[in-house]
Design a protein that fits this description.
It is built from 14 helices and nine strands. By secondary structure, it is α/β, with parallel strands linked by helices. Strands 1-2-3-4-5-6-7-8 form an eight-stranded parallel β-barrel, surrounded by six helices.
Length: 386
């Protein structure tokens, strides 16, 4: 492996280098952030503000905010209702390939993990997407492992073209690309791009990403900006909570999104809040000190800081937690999920192994009914091209 241990802060040939100061701003603010310096008075001040500054956001993520969690949840609920009404948007992910060239020690797809590898061809993608569309869903999130060799830009573009026949909104969670590649993918039908930074702590990042393009920290961090330059209408942000200090990672995620929103005011901003989950051949992986109350704190802090942002709650979390958090802070929920390759056709087995174990295996119909039972309105699509 040693020959692949490139400097994680240096770009590899072919990677687009942006003239942007966003990375430096995010990292400098995160490094200066000490969650333990905040007091109850700081939290109270943040809660009393109608719109919240980065400093307010920092206080809401601090340990001092723990006793205020119920109040934060109620305020978040008000903000969510004000901006989104009682609508909860539904989607499902479709994994089309699990080949990966990265060695990320916490991920089931990592190139050294002995799993069944697979990728769907165009005909298989079409069948999977037909099956998903028949559930009534109008939004799909296309995912691959991070292998340019096995899932090149053209392959992902073809998946987007097929998806556009069946869905009104098409999202991508694939390897980071250059802005001209994002432009091509956007022309093929993709609307938005999500990239998990995993952790914004570059030293920790280096120890977790041992090989592959993903090892290059700045290229990954600037992916959302390149996607916006490529014409995408929305970008999603996330840290994988539990890899490093979750408060500092959540703070950096929020600041990153905030700075890009200021720089690209038209951009739709979305947050995901994933916690570590067990993977194939390693059931010891867990989110350490990030329990459900801490996860709720992060989600409500995002909502109070960036009230217009979409917040997704994934099937990494158990059904009861997901049902409670929709309408409080979350505005988007996945349903009918398989993290294996394929897996949406009843007569067919998943063709490749899963990226991680999910905690909520309910069908689209079951999640739909659970949302309605809370007096909320499940919505299959929030965007129409005219």
């Amino acid at each position: 492996m040693s020959e692949q241990r490139t400097n994680h802060m240096e770009y590899i040939a072919g990677m687009e280098v942006l003239e942007s100061d966003v990375l430096d701003q995010v990292i400098s603010r995160m490094e200066a952030y000490d969650p333990n310096q905040y007091t109850a008075a700081d939290v109270r001040r943040a809660l009393n503000h109608d719109s919240r500054t980065i400093e307010d956001f920092a206080a809401l993520l601090s340990p001092a905010a723990t006793p205020f969690l119920e109040e934060m949840a109620q305020l978040a609920k008000k903000e969510t209702e004000k901006r989104f009404g009682n609508s909860i948007y539904m989607f499902t992910p479709l994994y089309i390939a699990n080949y990966c060239e990265n060695y990320c020690i916490y991920c089931g797809f990592n190139c050294h993990n002995k799993i069944r590898r697979a990728k769907l061809n165009a005909e298989q993608m079409e069948k999977e997407m037909q099956a998903i569309a028949e559930t009534g869903l109008e939004e799909v999130l296309i995912l691959t492992g991070e292998s340019r060799k096995m899932s090149d830009v053209k392959y992902i573009g073809e998946a987007c073209k097929i998806a556009r026949k069946y869905f009104k909104a098409v999202g991508l969670e694939v390897y980071p690309m250059n802005s001209d590649e994002y432009e091509y993918i956007h022309q093929c039908g993709a609307d938005f791009v999500t990239v998990f930074q995993e952790t914004y702590n570059s030293d920790k990042y280096e120890t977790l990403h041992l090989a592959g393009h993903k090892r290059v920290f700045p290229y990954r961090l600037n992916a959302q900006e390149r996607a916006l330059k490529g014409g995408m209408r929305g970008v999603g942000f996330a840290a994988l909570l539990g890899l490093a200090d979750f408060r500092k990672d959540a703070f950096a995620t929020g600041v990153h999104a905030y700075l890009l929103q200021r720089k690209y005011p038209h951009a739709e901003i979305a947050f995901s809040c994933p916690r570590l989950r067990p993977i194939i051949n390693n059931d010891k992986i867990n989110p350490k000190d990030v329990h459900e109350p801490q996860l709720l704190q992060v989600m409500t802090a995002y909502r109070l800081f960036m009230p217009f942002a979409s917040i997704t709650i994934s099937t990494r979390e158990r059904a009861g937690f997901r049902d409670n958090v929709v309408g409080l802070a979350a505005t988007k929920i996945s349903a009918g999920v398989s993290t294996g390759i394929g897996g949406h056709l009843e007569e067919a087995e998943e063709q490749g192994d899963r990226q991680f174990e999910i905690a909520d295996g309910r069908s689209v119909e079951e999640v739909y009914e659970a949302i309605k039972s809370r007096g909320l309105q499940p919505v299959m699509n929030d965007y129409i091209y005219v």
